[in-house]
Amino acid sequence: MSANDNQKTMPNALPAGYRFNEFEIQEVIGGGGFGIVYRAWDHQLERTIAIKEYMPVSLAVRAEDLSLELRGERYQKLFNAGLTSFIQEARLLARFNHPGLLHVLRFWEQNGTAYMGTLYYSGMTLKEWQLTSPDAVNEAWIRRLLPPLFGAINTIHQAGYLHRDISLDNIQIQENQLPVLLDFGSARKEIGNLSDETEIMLKPGFAPIEQYSEEGENEQGPWTDIYALGAVLHSLITSNPPPVSVVRCIEDNYQPLVERKPEGYSLPLLHAVDCALAMKPADRPQSIDAFAALIDLPVSDVEAVVNRLQAPPEPLPAPVEEEESVAPAPVVMAVNHASPSVEPVTPRNVRRLSPGLIALAAVALLAVAIVTWLANRRAALPENGAPVTAADSSVSPASPPATTPAALATVYLKLEQGANVVLNGQPVEVKTGNNGFAALNLAAGQYRIEVHSGTSMRAQSLVIDKPGTWLLNPGN
Question: Which terminal residue of the chain, N or C, has fewer Cβ atoms less than 10 Å from its own Cβ?
């Protein structure tokens, strides 16, 4: 678990000084909707450890005696399922003895929940590293990072398991520069699998298409983690994650890195990332060894990783607090607003999508909320912020404005046959593709989008002030 000099305040957290026998809670150092992470002192061995508590805030609250109590009896099944997965994950991690994997010291049940005691890892996540030290990220740095990370992931795969949650904020860079792959997030995923009300967190841009489909369990394999790892590398190289896989089913705007040719990066590395991000699982490297071979890198064993500990560590810059981002209105089905601090969630019913490209995209657009990818190009905002449309091949305003600022965002609409679109009171001619979607390229401004079909009308108000891609399902 990561160190952080700024103690985080979190509702329902145990107070400093609370004791689990020899373990004494000192402060909260992290957490989210499904758990809380503490820094603790082991009085018996006189060392700092980390303790992770299973605490799903949507299902339970902290009682006066500091135990957990359910928000309602109907949550018992979900709570128990998450608890079981949390314990199983602790047992799984305890089997491994790899310096690149979270090392579990022990786990126990108490206070109506479960706890996982792990080694305390100083340093920062890749996400924090990218924010605070972007100039330090280059191909040489990535090539030093990858072998031990490959070794950690390969250890999981060789044991017959998948991680399924590899991302920038799940890879910790220690002060000695060695990476540690953090926990699997099993509890939240199990709760998401069973609940239509509780949201799961498939990180947009990092989850391959097979993870969005309930029928896709048999399609998942090492190539699933390899896609996520490719997304991590894409994010480090370009500062942006790749387009969300579900959006790529509608219109694949992924531009291969070998065509973009980011300065300072070799073609073998860029080609390997492109291969890892192939939409079809069969088109990706099928193992970590195959992926490493594309980059011409070894998969480090434990001994090689440990030997690197002898090298003097480089100092880490102090973490920078991330700005809080405002979530989009829930009626908007998908948006990504360029803020690296946003951790959007994907509702479970999106996972009912079929593997087929067009069918999957259509069902995705009818789900409650999915979050999409960050546009690679940032257009300058017009000074007056006036709502203006920028026409493309599929959209042409009926009354074009005198000036047409550069498009800032792309809005996708699923249209029925014969439906008409009205934008800010003006009809627009749209061409619907074979997949049933029409696209509007819009500049910065405020919009009201109406979809007229027969005697019915659906509308959605929208404010665009940052680059992004939106999937809209206007309401009645």
Answer: C
- The CATH classification number of 123-328 equals 1.10.510.10
Span 94-124, pLDDT tens digits:
888 888 998 999 999 999 999 999 999 888 9
How many Cβ atoms are within 10 Å of 48's Cβ, its own excluded? 14
Q: Are strands 35-42 and 23-31 parallel, antiparallel or unpaired?
A: antiparallel
What's the CA gap between 248 and 209, in Å, rounded? 9
Strand bridging mode 179-181 / 171-173? antiparallel
pLDDT tens-digit series, residues 19-39: 999 999 999 988 777 889 999
The yes-or-no verdict on residue 373 having pLDDT over 70 is no
Distance between CA atoms of residues 59 and 106, nearest Å: 25
The residue among 281, 302, 188 whose CA lies nearest residue 230 is 281
Question: What's the whole-model pTM score?
Answer: 0.64
CATH topology assigned to domain 1-121: Phosphorylase Kinase; domain 1 (3.30.200)
Given a contact cutoff of 8 angstroms between Cβ atoms, the answer to whether 404 and 391 are in contact is yes
> Distances from the Cα of 277 to the Cαs of 14, 142, 248, 256, 316, in angstroms?
41, 17, 11, 9, 30
CATH topology of domain 377-472: Immunoglobulin-like (2.60.40)
Distances in Å between the alpha carbon of 389 and those of 93, 272, 288, 404?
52, 38, 45, 7
Check residue 472 and give its pLDDT: 67
pLDDT at 184 over 60: yes
Quote the percentage of the chain above a pLDDT of 70.
Answer: 67
For the chain, residues classed under CATH 1.10.510.10 are: 123-328
Closest by Cα among 412, 418, 427 to 453: 418
Per DSSP, helices labelled H in 28-185 are 76-95, 126-132, 139-158
Structure tokens that stand for 344 in this block:
């959007």
User: How many angstroms separate the CA atoms of 467 and 317, rounded?
Assistant: 29
To the nearest whole number, what is the mean pLDDT of the chain?
Answer: 75
Positions at the binding site: 52
Domain with CATH 3.30.200.20 in the chain: 1-121
Helix (H) or strand (E) run with residue 29 in it: strand 23-31
- Mean pLDDT value across residues 252-277: 95
More confident residue, 17 or 249: 17
